[in-house]
Each structure stands twice: as structure tokens, then as C-alpha cells.
Amino acid sequence: MGIYGVYWRDGTCLRMTRIAYNRARQDLYAPVLNAMLGCEAAFDAVQSPCEDRPQALLREQYGLYSYAGELYRLGAPAGAAANIVLDPLFIFVFRWGMMGAAVATVIGQLITAALSVWYLLHMRTIRPSRTDLRPNKTVCGRTLLMGGTSFFSQISLVAAMAAINNMLRQYGALDPIFGQPQYAQIPMAVVGIVMKFFQIVISIVVGTAAGCIPIVGFNMGANRKARVRALFTRLLLVETTVGLVALFLSECCPHQLIAIFGAAQESEHYTAFAVRAFRIYLCMVVLACVNKACFIFLQAMGKTAESTALSMVREVVFGVGFALLLPRFFGLDGVLYSMPVSDVLTFAVSAVLIARTYRELRA
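RE: above sequence
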């Protein structure tokens, strides 16, 4: 059901955005998209504290349950539904073009954020008050220590994507085909589709690993290391399976994946580059899934230093480094090679941490 919702929300949004992009002036694309992303980031900051992880922690550790949690589960689908309905309305009926897609996205995020705020104020067991807004050094310190890992992970991911987008624009302009004005938008549009598919895969990986966090914390606190080790093994097997399915789809069914995102009527240059992008960029997606699972599991065990280091190495050292380096030797294809090369080298580091974790859990 979660995959279904991601497909309809993100897939529909991307298709509508592509149509709007074709109808809009390219010099207006960047500022409108930046405004949309800025508003979305602000609303995500409101929604994040209300996700399933706090609910799971409350139920696991304290046996608490709130009917508001069930209502909140309607928040994300409500925002997605609003986005799906408003996209064609604003783009085609109001003729707002790219701005219409941006406005629809912001309204969808606003609906979800409003339901999130309502949820925070109507929990049955926990009632926030004004005194809870005062910073507490102890609580802030522990929160920053554990949350810093995810913070640095997201920031480094932004840096990696910025490097990839800049290289796509720079070396796409030097390509004999994509350097032509009518094809200039193809590299970035195609990589956007590939990254959207990769985001769906990683969302499954992250959701599975995040579900282990309260179980790991409980059993580590109870010194039941055998259970943690068994859970780690099962998690790696599940994430590897997810990666294998994604690998099969990206290598064997790239045309079908492209069609899902509304690219059936594009030029042969678009299709050829999209197929090549899926097969090269995601050829090591299995290792990417294992790396992400290792990063989250280490965080759950309280190994924030190792988890942060692994994330920074993947996104900054390898992700940004190879995105800037490889295009110098391989041109536009070098941008595509940066992903699998980064995943292979990161997996070498992950393998060391996985082996060390198993040794610690056997002690």
C-alpha cells in the first residue's frame, strides 16, 4: 500500500511536472522549483516528528497508544490525493504551467502538515504544554547526538545531488546530441526519473531498517545480543532481496519503468539515454540497499560515530568526489558511473563494520 501511494503521488507529480516543464520557459524552471522545494522542506520539518517511528517507540517501550496516530496515517494519503487532483487542475485548467505543479505540491504538503500539528496537540496520553517548548540541555544533547547522524546524512545527500546536477548540466552541454537546445533537458530529466525509482527502493529499505530500531534498543538494553544478531542477519537478507528485485527491474525492464513515468512519447535519444542511465546508475543497487541498512542499524545500536562516518564517506567523499572526477574522463557517462563506483567502495567499508558488529554481538 505504501509503494502504491508513493507511485501515485510521486509518479503523477513527476509526469505532470514534465508536461509543465515542456510548456514553460526554461529560465523560469529553476526559481519555481527552488520555491517549491523550500516550502516542502519547511512542511517536512513539521511532519517528521509525527511519523511512525515515535508511535512505534511509544507502543514498544511504554505500551502507549493514541487514536490520533491512526488519524495521522490519513495525513500523507490526503496530501498525496490533493496533489494528484490539483496537478492537472492548476496546470491545464488554470494554465499555470510549472507554477501550477509547484503550488499543488505545496498545498499537499500543507494539508499533511496541518494534520500533523493536530496530531501533536491531540494525543491521548501525552499533552504538550508551553513549558515543553523550553530547551532542556540534557534532552537536546541526547537528541542531537542521535539525530545528528540523520542530519549529516541528508545534508551530504543534498551535496551529492547538487554535484550530480551540475555535472549533468555542464557535460550535457558538451555532448554532441544533448548539447542541442531541443535535447538539453533530457539528461537531467532522465536522471530525475532514475533517482525517483531509486528513492522508492530506498524508502522500502529505510522503512524496513527503521522498524528494527525499537527492537534493537529494547534487546540491547536487556543485553540480549543474540536476538540483535539474528535480527541483523534477517535485515541484511531482506534488504538484499529488495535490492535484487530493484536490480532485476532496472536491468531487464527499463523501458517499462520509463513508461510508468510518462515518457512513452519521447524521442529516441531520450529513450536510449534513459535505458543506459537505469542500467548503469543502478547496477549496484543491491550494495546500496545493504549500505543503507548498515547505516541505520548502527545508528539503532547507538554507534552514531560509525553510522555518521559511513554516511559521510558514501555521500561526500565518494558521492561528490566521483561525480566531479569521473566526468572528466568519461564525459556524461561518468556521472552515471559515479553511483555504482561509490556503492562498491562504500560496501567495502560497510563489510568491515558488519564483521565488527557481528563480533561484538557474539561477545
